[in-house]
Specification:
This protein has 299 residues and is mainly beta. It is built from no helices and 28 strands.
Length: 299
């Protein structure tokens, strides 16, 4: 993709939270966001208006995900884990398995499992409806800020504060690969959408790296941002990689990790840390930030 053909426009800006926004996810016609104001809120993608669906917690919302059965899984700053039935607007399960903040929740569609990781380096795996804890692994690796799942659901990877990326197989939950990736801590990762052997990682060191995750070989290292890279995502059928950082910037890369575009405050972006990204479709994604704003971007 040629750089001159890349036109990214801000489709809409949504303001409504009273605190930093830590997490976002899209499902159907809605964007769900979680904030330090202790609210999980739902917004209409079409016009950015707030929906009546909102949940007030006693602690900040750090992470969330939604299963195919329309169960909403929410992790809080105190380690509380909540399961909600969206259609019935009813809480179905509540757990205190984790004792520290839950920083990442991912859903494995193939296995129908939920992966939950916290600030103490603990990983729990649940049935998607929250009825059963399948395994609890105290990894002792510090904060796990990001989880990503291999495209066929057979593996999942963790970005760990001790600098390692840990890859597990999803049937028996055995660790199959461990890569020392970022000396100040790994903070984000993405299995490459176009190459099954590659994995992209971001660190607190602001480096973006490309790995052969099966062998552990480093293929590329880029000084991508000024501060920690908090999220790595993709759009355009994997042809474009998107990164979000504590340095307030969003950057777009081609599939070989060549820089294509930087979005900062002067281009209508955020003026504080960009904490999360989520995809609406192959041409549209959402960013959220400490600046209390939700921005919808269209390619």
């Amino acid at each position: 993709m040629k750089k001159l053909k890349l036109i990214l426009k801000k489709s809409k800006e949504i303001i409504g939270h009273a605190g930093a926004i830590y997490a976002c996810i899209t499902k159907g016609d809605y964007i769900y966001t979680g904030s330090s104001d202790k609210y999980l809120t739902r917004w209409r993608i079409s016009d950015g208006s707030q929906d009546k669906f909102a949940i007030k917690f006693n602690h900040s919302v750090y992470a969330m995900n939604i299963t195919k059965e329309e169960f909403l899984v929410v992790g809080l700053s105190n380690g509380a884990l909540h399961f909600f039935d969206i259609n019935k607007r009813k809480e179905i399960k509540f757990y205190t398995q984790h004792k520290k903040g839950i920083f990442s929740i991912e859903y494995n569609l193939i296995r129908d499992h939920i992966y939950v990781a916290d600030a103490d380096g603990n990983l729990s795996v649940w049935e998607s409806d929250g009825r059963k804890l399948l395994i609890y692994l105290p990894l002792g690796c510090g904060k796990v800020r990001s989880i990503d799942i291999f495209n066929d659901g057979s593996y999942f990877a963790l970005a760990c504060q001790d600098g390692n990326i840990r890859v597990f197989e999803s049937e028996y939950f055995n660790e199959v690969s461990k890569i020392y990736a970022h000396k100040e801590g790994a903070s984000s990762l993405l299995f490459h959408p176009l190459n099954n052997n590659q994995l992209i990682s971001g660190g607190k060191d602001a480096l973006l790296k490309l790995w052969d995750w099966r062998s552990g070989k480093e293929l590329k290292s880029i000084a991508a941002h000024n501060y920690a890279i908090y999220r790595i995502s993709s759009i355009k059928n994997g042809e474009l990689i998107v990164t979000a950082s504590r340095d307030k910037n969003i950057k777009l890369w081609d599939s070989s990790l060549n820089i294509l575009r930087r979005i900062d405050y002067k281009q209508g972006g955020h003026n504080h840390s960009v904490n999360d990204l989520c995809t609406i479709n192959e041409n549209t994604f959402v960013s959220c930030s400490d600046d209390k704003r939700i921005i919808v971007w269209n390619l």
